[in-house]
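Give me structure tokens for this 349-residue protein.
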Amino acid sequence: MIKNELKQQFEYIYDKNVEHKNLNKLDSINEIDNLLQTYFKQALINTLESDYHILVSKSGVAKINKKAATKKFEEISHNRKKKYILNEGEVTSFLVELGIMTADGKVINSKYDKFKQINRYLELVSDCIPYLDKNKTIRIIDFGCGKAYLTFALYDFLVLKMGYNVEIVGLDLKENVINFCSNLAKKLNFDDLRFVQGDIKGFNEFKNADMVISLHACNTATDDALATAVNWGAKVILAVPCCQHELLKKIKNKKMVPMLKYGIIKEKLSSLLTDSLRANVLEIMGYRTQVLEFIDMEHTPKNIMIRAFFEEISNVDKVVEEYKEFKKEWQISPYIEEAFGKGLTSKLE
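Here you go.
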């Protein structure tokens, strides 16, 4: 609301700057129409009454899927304070137990980065809501959950705030971590959240899942998690890769020698190549895939999230050819193909 006139704010994020436009109703309609005709092939629109998922075909025909609303009313003052999903001053039991918030709802200064990270994570999860069926028990597994800050946050958000029925399993190799998390889940009465000791390859309790999460799984463990998620038919996949060393000694490219001869640059490049391959493989397997910034660079160097939604992808053949050419250019055969096995191989033939 600006000078008693209701505006829609458009935010455009570029590599090095962010721009805003505040438009009236008619101009907003024209801007959205222009964006869909010129730049984007899909949109997720949240209103107070309903959510709309718009898909635009190559011929320009729009398909609109309507679902129940997932967003609540927001303060529309132009100078409003940033609204998080979790807010300081609102006592949140799991944050208190994990030492992020005091008993009266104040975020501990030294934990404010973690508080912001959790909120950013929940913002990314909230976009996944249209892909989850509220009329059934939603099955979620979190590979390599660690101390499970984000696993507890996910349960709190989906169950206590959204009212979903869920079954969430946190998986980790460390026995002491599993014991800690299991005891905390019991203390919080998070009845449908449990923790299991084990690794990604050895976990066989599920034959299907709705959402699979893999945050900071080291090296090729991320590939195993992605392959498992696809084999389970997961509708949503969230992965934040870590320690991508597999391609470091494999990549070769005569044109890129000026980069490859410097160790630290080669290491960063191999990480980007690895995540690019992962994102493209998910597209080949039928997922609409995004590569997003998870949290700001100053908080952690591992800030790339791969987020994928299972949909009917129309241009798979093109992605396959691009993927093959990309591998050929860098002279690599990535582990992810081994992890996915025949399901991927058959699509690449």
